């Protein structure tokens, strides 16, 4: 199995040449993503995921009390689903993500930075995948920590990595930074959106180091173009 990777050094060539600082958000931090994204449009990606070849053995809930209505679907080179977006503020404690701002806060993530520390959810756009179980096993599908994800909401496309795992029967969650990048309220208690988010996870891809958003954007743009060409 060939793993497509893009280390930070590779990103420094293609992606960083096009890098541009974005405005500072109300949080006092640069609005993620930290490099410009958008050579592949939301419309072009969504046109390729209008039908679902279901690969999950059953459906997921978007919340504990919701009906199970969300399948994981397969395409050439990717899996995808369309769901809500709950906010994951887990990982490193920061002024925005901690026990006081998030009643469900956990000081760890399933996957860690290159220095061994948990990911930082308020600066790194990442997606949460359901824990491997009887409905679907992300690992068997060629997805793992650092896999690249195109996240589509309204007319926006932003790239993220797989950074955490969640409950085995619930789907639709991403980091504070991922939500903020898409213009979704990132507040872990009151934010998120109830529907309309499409997550396209590219199989056998990996960003190294996982915390390099620039590398995720560079590889994500490449894989998104390939996805459109091959489906």
Which helices and strands appear, and what pairs or packs with what?
Layout: E1 4-7, H1 8-17, H2 42-46, E2 53-54, E3 73-75, E4 78-88, E5 126-130, E6 148-153, E7 156-166, E8 173-175, H3 176-181, E9 193-202, E10 205-208, H4 213-230
Parallel strand pairs: 1-10, 4-8, 5-7
Antiparallel strand pairs: 2-3, 3-4, 4-9, 5-8, 6-7, 6-9
How would you briefly describe this protein structure?
The protein has four helices and ten strands, in the order E-H-H-E-E-E-E-E-E-E-H-E-E-H. With 231 residues, it is of the alpha/beta class.
Structure description:
With 231 residues, this protein is of the alpha/beta class. The protein has one domain (4-230). The chain is 17% helix and 26% strand. The chain is built from 4 helices and 10 strands; from the N terminus they run βααβββββββαββα. It has helices at residues 8-17, 42-46, 176-181, 213-230; strands spanning 4-7, 53-54, 73-75, 78-88, 126-130, 148-153, 156-166, 173-175, 193-202, 205-208. The strands form 2 sheets. A 6-stranded mixed barrel has the order 4-8-5-7-6-9. Strands 1-10 form a two-stranded parallel sheet. It is globular, with a radius of gyration of 16 Å. 46% of the residues are buried. The model is unreliable at 8-35 (pLDDT under 50).
- Tell me the number of structural domains: 1
Shape: globular
Distance between the termini: 20 Å
| Residue-averaged pLDDT | 88
Strand content: 25-35%
DSSP helix fraction: 10-25%
Tell how many strands the DSSP assignment holds: 10
Strand pairing plus helix content: what structural class?
A: alpha/beta
Order of helices and strands: EHHEEEEEEEHEEH
Spans of at least 5 consecutive residues whose pLDDT stays below 50 are 8-35
Radius of gyration: 16 Å
Query: What is the strand arrangement across the widest sheet?
Result: 4-8-5-7-6-9
Can you summarize the main beta sheet? 6 strands, mixed, barrel
Helices, by number, come to 4
């Amino acid at each position: 199995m060939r793993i497509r990777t893009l280390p930070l050094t590779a990103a420094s060539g293609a992606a960083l040449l096009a890098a541009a600082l974005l405005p500072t958000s109300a949080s006092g931090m640069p609005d993620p993503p930290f490099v410009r994204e958008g050579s592949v449009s939301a419309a072009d990606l969504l046109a390729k995921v209008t039908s679902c070849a279901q690969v999950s053995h059953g459906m997921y809930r978007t919340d504990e009390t919701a009906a199970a209505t969300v399948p994981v679907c397969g395409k050439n080179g990717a899996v995808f689903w369309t769901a809500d977006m709950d906010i994951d503020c887990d990982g490193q404690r920061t002024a925005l993500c901690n026990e006081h701002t998030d009643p469900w806060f956990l000081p760890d993530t399933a996957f860690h930075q290159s220095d061994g520390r948990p990911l930082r959810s308020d600066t790194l756009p990442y997606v949460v995948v359901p824990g491997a179980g009887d409905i679907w096993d992300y690992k068997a599908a060629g997805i793992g920590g650092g896999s690249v994800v195109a996240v589509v909401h309204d007319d926006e496309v932003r790239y993220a990595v797989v950074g955490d795992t969640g409950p085995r029967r619930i789907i639709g969650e991403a980091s504070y930074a991922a939500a903020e990048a898409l213009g979704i309220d990132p507040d872990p208690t009151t934010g998120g959106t109830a529907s309309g988010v499409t997550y396209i996870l590219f199989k056998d891809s990996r960003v190294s180091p996982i915390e390099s958003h620039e590398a995720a954007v560079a590889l994500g743009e490449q894989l998104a173009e390939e996805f459109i060409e091959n489906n």
